[in-house]
Amino acid sequence: MSKLTPKNSAHQWFIISAIGFKEKGIAKDLIDKLKTYGYYGPDQDVREIKIFETESVTTAEYDRDNKFVPKNLRDTKNTTWKELPNGRVQKTARRLINRYPSYIFINMRYSPDLWYLVRNTPGVLGVIGSSGKGKAPIPISQEQYEQLTNQKASAPTPVVQSSVNGEIELLEKNHVKILRGQFVDAKGVVKAVDKANKIAKVAIDAFGRDQIIDVDFNDLEKI
Fold first, then answer.
1. Strand locations in the chain (E)
2. Strands of the sheet with 53-63, listed across from one edge
3. What's the chain's average pLDDT?
4. Considering all CA atoms of the chain, what is the largest pairwise distance in Å, rounded to the nearest integer?
5. pLDDT band for position 39 (cuts 50, 70, 90)
6. How far apart are CA 157 and CA 139, in angstroms?
7. Whole-prediction pTM value?
């Protein structure tokens, strides 16, 4: 595929929408594909493709004889165990999560050929600001990029969730406010409730469209 003359010679940030929970694999496939066509690199039309991650810390308590509790309470790289005075044990699990689920950031210099390759990569659903049907996408400003990625702010506070303490009566269609984590103060609507794991699926507005995120009951307030 031959490169066409870029419509805009400046590198700008765009936000790709992608299949949720597969952003890392999709980003890798996109980078490999663009490298093959000579588009990816410090001096190429695509300088960077990024997923912004934050640490999620989840705690849960179990009875000592629970099937999920190892007999030797051996810690792993991402999981630690602690015996509690009440005879129960506490599990703390740490993992990195995409701060913007279903979104990938790409710093590129727009051209029709490049845009064709990006939007036709498996797992890519589109780019925020594009009306579809091959129309050119709209970039975000540098100021918006810095606000979204905290480039001028301190490192994000880890998301801390608890799956055992407290409970609120949640029903579908309840309007709620998120109290902690990456989406603190965001407001949304409950779409589904998993009472067994005390998790609610909440629809919040993200980049002009609904985004479904899992939120612990303890991190929600009904409004």
1. 12-18, 46-50, 53-63, 79-83, 88-98, 103-108, 124-127, 159-162, 175-178, 187-194, 199-206, 209-216, 220-222
2. 79-83, 88-98, 53-63, 159-162
3. 80
4. 69
5. very high
6. 28
7. 0.65
